Amino acid sequence: MNAKWLKILDEVIALRRDSAKQGVKLWFRGQRVAQWPVQSTLHRRVIEYFQRTGFHFGESEDRAFLRDEYKSVYRTFKAQAWHLLDPMERGDWGIVFRMQHHGFPTRLLDWTKSFACALYFAQWERNPTDDAAVYVLNPEGLNLVSAGRQGLIALDESAGPANIDTRVYHPRWVAPETDLATIAVVPYFSNARMVAQARLLH
C-alpha cells in the first residue's frame, strides 16, 4: 500500500482517537477540488451569479438578495413538492432537508461521520489534474465558538424558538441584518436519505 496513503490513515485514526477521549465524534467533508471554498449551495449560487453578471448591490443588499432567493426557492419547492413529501418531512426543517437532498440551494452544507464516505466524494468525478480535499471538523467545538453552546443543535420539525434560535436561518422567518454564525446541526428525525449525514448551517 502507498506510504502516503498509510500516513493519511494513521492521521485520521489519531484524530479520531484524540476526539473520542473528549467524547466528540468528528465530521468529514470531501471536495473534488481543494480550491473550492467551503460554502453552502445557496452561497455558491449567489456568488457565482454576482461574478457572472459583474453586478453587486452592496454588502447589505447582497445579503438581502441571498435571503430573497432562498425564500423564493423554498416557497416554490414547498408548493410543488408537498404531495411528494413524507409526513415527517412536511415541517419547516423537513422541507429544507428534502430540498438539500435534491440539490436545491439551501444554507445547509453536508458533512458525514464517515471518513470513507468523505473520501468517496473527494474522488467522485475528480479531474486527475485537480487536488482534492477532505476536511475534518469538531462540530461541538464549532458550536461552542459560534453559539456559545457545546454539543450539536437539533432542528425540530417546526422552526420555533429554542435554546438556539434557529428561526433566523430558516427562509420562513426574518433574518437579522448581520451575518449569521455557522453552526453544526442535525435533524431531530431521520430517514434513509439522512443516514451517515450531518450538516452545517450558514
CA radius of gyration: 18 Å
Q: What is the overall shape?
A: globular
What is the N-to-C succession of helices and strands? HEHHHEHEHEEE
Low-confidence segments: none
Please report the total strand number as a whole number. 6
Query: What is the share of helical residues?
Result: 40-55%
What does this structure look like?
A 4-stranded mixed sheet has the order 2-6-5-4. Strands 1-3 form a two-stranded antiparallel sheet. The chain is built from 6 helices and 6 strands. It has 202 residues and is α+β, with helices and mostly antiparallel strands. The model has no long low-confidence stretch (mean pLDDT 85). The protein has a domain at 37-113 and 139-201.
Give the helices and strands, then pairings:
Elements: H1 3-21, E1 27-31, H2 41-53, H3 59-81, H4 92-101, E2 108-112, H5 115-123, E3 133-137, H6 139-147, E4 153-155, E5 183-187, E6 197-201
Parallel strand pairs: 4-5
Antiparallel strand pairs: 1-3, 2-6, 5-6
How is this structure best summarized?
The chain has helices at residues 3-21, 41-53, 59-81, 92-101, 115-123, 139-147, and strands at 27-31, 108-112, 133-137, 153-155, 183-187, 197-201. The protein has 202 residues and is α+β, with helices and mostly antiparallel strands. It has a domain at 37-113 and 139-201.
